[in-house]
Amino acid sequence: MSTESEPRRRTVTPDDRAAVNPFAALSGLLDRPMASFYLLLSAAGLLLTIGLLMVLSASSIKSYAVTGSAFALFNNQLVYAGLGLVAFWLALRLRVRAFRLLGYPLLAVSGGLLLLLFLLPSAGVRVNGAVLWINIGGLQVQPSEPAKLALALWAADVLVRKRALLGQGKHLLVPLFPVAGVLLAIVGKEDLGGMLSLLLILLAVLWVTGVRFRVFGMLMAVAMTGIVMLIIAAPHRIARLTSFRDPFADAQDTGHQAVQGLFALSTGGWWGVGLGASRQKWGALPEAHNDFIFAIIGEELGVIGCLLVIGLFCVLGYTGFRIARRATDPFVRIVSAACTVWLIGQAFINMGGVVGLVPITGITLPLISAGGSSLVLTMFVIGMLASFARMEPEAVAALHARGRTKWAKLLGIPLPPRPRPQRDVRSRTEPGSHPDPGAPRPAPVRAAAAAARSTAPAARGSAPVPRQRGGRSAS
């Protein structure tokens, strides 16, 4: 009688897993030590490239009409991109201690400039009815932009230093809430969009720190009250909020920008009309190269171009939260999450305003919209996140095992520091004693004590053992 042989078991290989799971290869790439670093550079680099191309396309008509050259505004943006690369390089070389120290002078300088614009508007530059810029050495600087980074760095350092006392309300409220409240009020007077960005940073810092929900409820109530008061105090904000409900009701005045942006998006279709072939940039769409550059992307590159930009921002957000989750330093974790919420929140508020999902706030699209202060600061933040990505434990081990490459030596980028070993907390009692005085002593100590008692003289006539004081006999 013949018996059927049992089938041999075959070892499952990575190729077999890839055949069953199409995302196995992607999972393997994400498991690499430097995955966060390269994901961040790829997403930010592509967004910056798309931004430069779209600024050239969207600003060419206005630039030619104003200066006689179609490349004037693009050349300015190219210069700011170069400065942004320098800022990226500087941030990539800094250590965590430098970032913790940077928050204090940056907050003082940006807060002082904002206070100057608040008390003396004539010292600033008025653009589109708002005094948001100030001339420093021939360059127009928007102080609210560095104030965002200053709030993230300073608030994270304060909460990390006081993390053992955050259970007490006074240590949580002071000095964080008064300083943040004054900063929000000063920025919100002229720039409601900038105030919303600062509010996102503050909420992200508190959330990652682990603050209770009732604190969030109190903060949101105060913030909503302040936003309503700022809207009521400015008639143009009321008109903008009213036109948000139906921009076509006043398409020639308050709803003009929103309507023209929707026209640009609807014209593009799936594939767009072609790079450089936009019709809305010929004076119909205000701020086509700045606040509403996403509408030009939709017109020239179509739905596919819009989805590409949205996808790159999603990758940027995923990478930022990945860096925060893998960080071993609490300061790095808080700052990474706060800056990620700031950049991604600002991007989706801008794109939401263009497509009509949220009211128009005047917030720029990070890495894409024209603007010097915003681009340089965003590149510095990307460099800081890249520095944090190189400090992940797996990345540190891989970089030290590989050593500094030729490019790292050429650019002067040092290796990230190795993580410090955890120190054992030992008691300052006698050798062999237990750290907790109230706990039972270990068995060797009990045995030694029993042996010492047994050697003591038990007879009545025996001479007593002299008592020890300070290491000498009491003779």
Summarize the structure.
The chain has one domain (about 50-410).
Average pLDDT figure: 83
Pattern of helices and strands: HHHHHEEEHHHHHHHHHHHHHEE
Helical segment tally?
18
Helical proportion, percent range: 55-70%
Entry keywords:
about 475 residues; mainly alpha; 3-stranded antiparallel beta sheet; two-stranded antiparallel ribbon; 18 helices; 5 strands; about 65% helix; globular; disordered C terminus
Write up what this structure looks like.
- The structure is a single chain.
- The chain has 475 residues and is mainly alpha-helical.
- The chain has one domain (48-411).
- The protein is 63% helix and 4% strand.
- The protein is built from 18 helices and five strands.
- The strands form two sheets. Strands 1-2-3 form a three-stranded antiparallel beta sheet, with no helix packed on it. Strands 4-5 form a two-stranded antiparallel ribbon.
- Helix 5 (96-119) crosses helix 8 and helix 10 (213-233) crosses helix 11.
- The longest helix has 34 residues, at 293-326.
- The model is unreliable at 424-446 and 455-475 (pLDDT under 50).
Write the layout of secondary structure elements.
Blueprint: H1 14-20, H2 24-30, H3 35-67, H4 72-93, H5 96-119, E1 125-127, E2 130-136, E3 139-141, H6 144-161, H7 169-173, H8 176-190, H9 192-209, H10 213-233, H11 235-245, H12 256-268, H13 293-326, H14 330-355, H15 372-389, H16 393-402, H17 406-411, H18 443-454, E4 468-469, E5 472-473
Antiparallel strand pairs: 1-2, 2-3, 4-5
Helix pairs in contact: 3-4, 3-13, 3-15, 4-15, 5-6, 5-8, 6-8, 6-9, 6-14, 8-9, 9-10, 9-14, 10-11, 12-13, 13-14, 14-15
